[in-house]
Design goal:
- The complex is a heterodimer of chains A (101) and B (425).
- Chain A is an all-alpha fold and 101 residues long.
- In chain A, 54% of the residues lie in helices and 0% in strands.
- Chain A contains six helices and no strands.
- By secondary structure, chain B is of the alpha/beta class.
- Chain B is globular.
- The two termini of chain B are 33 Å apart.
- The N terminus of chain B is likely disordered.
- The chains are: A mainly alpha (101), B alpha/beta (425).
- The interface between A and B is large, with 32 and 47 residues.
Chain lengths: 101, 425
């Protein structure tokens, strides 16, 4: 369950030729910063009014995040939070949540 | 008496083996050992759960907490305002105990021996650890307000800044107050726990008065020169919703209290209230200072942002309101939860013989109600900066609500449900 995100982290680093080794759990750690509102591993409680992220296809999450960042998607708060993460970090996060059941 | 050695604990922790098989086996470089967590609030509960979850049961965790249940400070102002109950903000530790195999000990830590990696408990006995996490919250600097530096005075002049019996007692004082009376809340100089909290509380008491005691008044006596958090949004709410009911007085630091007459004594002035709610100046929870940890300004724990480990006391990590914060970082429950995850990841790496994640990120979201239904927020994201060695706020990210709304009120309650589950379920 964790492997795809870990693999993605390494793939991203290899592609970008990062100088120092990233933490193998980087995607997991980044996704955990979302869990306060969106639930542990993206499992928001039913009826909480906050989007469930677990199991959502990566492309869907990334599209939403891109729209939050650009301001084209209506938001109360996500337009402000999404801007705090790099596109590479959002890619890792979306990959991690897509792999959650 | 009950010097608990690690092997005894491992024998006792039957849940541990079950956890490991439940989650199956992961890759090499596994963390093992015993982590003791002191304090089961937003920081401590989170680190306890995430250590168990991420180690797949490989690391033993003992959580020492003096209260039998978790009671949330966030949302507690709605109890004071009369639209939520204590039951609504109380969550059991059973999820941590039964689902995650955290050993919960209802007790208090009275001493830390960092050299021997051991703590002493109030009920007697000691416990050894491989890593210690202190998440003690804040304690009050009572001697800065001499008149309430004793238990009798503190039973009458309430802070209600730690959710629990004082939350109930403050609500009772407000209910008992006659219509036409005055409620005054005093705000200490920043930094203190929950920067927007005093202004939220003032709003919710004013909202209660409008509904039930329309001739009554709310006065905020603020030691700071201006509203510390969400300033524009609070001022607009006060103008729109509470004109004639709520009065804001900046630069009004409480120096003392005359308990008999319920009077706050300011530098050049005095203010008598029917219900006087004094939020005293704060510092890291007492155990931080008693443990000999390095403090900044003699108040807040100095920590390494890659691991939340105390600078100067190896093996001891500190979370939440007790730390000296990074720039623009508030003392909030949400942030304490983020500290807990940063620390959990770092501790697991350290116990496995690896370095902590070199690029940690934490973020904050904080909602405040301005009446029983409408809320406002502030948010920020903080990325580790290798030059300053601090998590720095990302420029251009974060911010506050465009306007107060019922939608944000709904989301605020959803936030509470999800974060409580993220810590405790």
């Amino acid at each position: 369950m964790k492997m795809p995100a870990t693999v993605a982290a390494f793939a991203f680093l290899a592609a970008n030729g990062a100088a120092h080794a990233a933490d193998p759990n980087l995607a997991r750690n980044l996704a955990a910063t979302c869990a306060n509102c969106h639930g542990t591993n993206g499992h928001a409680l039913a009826g909480s009014g906050i989007d469930m992220l677990a199991g959502v296809p990566k492309a869907v999450t990334l599209q939403k995040l891109a729209e939050f960042k650009s301001g084209t998607r209506p938001a109360t708060i996500m337009h402000q939070i999404s801007k705090g993460y790099t596109d590479e970090q959002l890619d890792l996060i979306a990959t991690h949540f897509a792999a959650q059941k | 008496m009950m010097l608990m050695k690690r092997r005894d604990f491992l024998k006792a922790g039957a849940a541990a083996g079950a956890m490991a098989s439940l989650y199956g086996c992961a890759g090499g470089g596994k963390a093992s050992g015993h982590v003791v967590v002191v304090g089961g609030g937003y920081g401590g509960a989170t680190v306890a759960k995430y250590l168990r979850m991420w180690s797949e049961g490989g690391v033993q965790v003992t959580l020492i907490e003096r209260n039998p249940t978790f009671i949330s400070c966030p949302i507690s102002n709605l109890v004071i305002g009369g639209t939520k109950t204590m039951e609504d903000i109380t969550v059991s530790y059973d999820g941590l105990r039964n689902k995650w195999g955290v050993r919960i000990v209802q007790d208090e830590v009275v001493a830390v021996d960092a050299a021997k990696r051991s703590i002493s408990l109030k009920a007697g006995g000691a416990m050894s650890y491989d890593r210690l996490v202190l998440s003690p919250g804040v304690d009050f600097i009572w001697n800065q307000i001499p008149g309430i530096n004793n238990p009798e005075a503190q039973a009458k002049i309430l802070h209600a800044w730690k959710a629990g019996p004082q939350t109930v007692a403050l609500r009772q004082q407000l209910e008992a107050m006659k219509d036409g009376g005055t409620y005054a809340i005093t705000v200490p100089k920043a930094p203190y726990r929950c920067p927007p909290g005093p202004y939220e509380r003032a709003c919710l008491v004013a909202d209660y008065f409008k509904r039930s005691k329309p001739k009554s008044k709310v006065v905020i006596l603020d030691a700071n020169e201006e509203v510390v958090s969400k300033k524009g949004l609070f001022i607009k709410a006060w103008d729109d919703l509470y004109k004639g009911t709520l009065e804001y007085r900046p630069n009004s630091e409480v120096r003392d209290v005359d308990v008999r007459s319920n009077t706050a004594i300011l530098e050049f002035d005095k203010f008598r209230a029917d219900v006087l709610n004094v939020i005293p100046p704060q510092r890291a929870g007492e155990i931080a200072a008693k443990s000999g940890l390095k403090l900044i300004n003699n108040r807040w724990a100095d920590i390494n942002w890659l691991s939340m480990e105390s600078n100067g006391t190896p093996g001891v990590h500190v979370l939440g309101d007790a730390i000296f914060p990074a720039p623009t970082m508030p003392k909030s429950g949400h942030m304490a939860n983020q500290h807990g995850k940063l620390a959990a990841a770092a501790i697991l790496n350290l116990l496995a013989g690896d370095e902590p994640n070199p690029t940690p990120v934490v973020m904050n979201t904080c909602y405040s109600f301005v009446d029983a239904k409408e809320a406002i927020h502030i948010a920020s994201v903080h990325q580790y900066d290798a030059v300053t060695k601090v998590v720095q706020p990302v420029k251009g990210a974060g911010g506050v609500s465009a306007a107060r709304s019922e939608l944000e009120g709904t989301v605020a309650l959803g936030w509470a449900k999800n974060i409580w589950a993220d810590m405790l379920a």
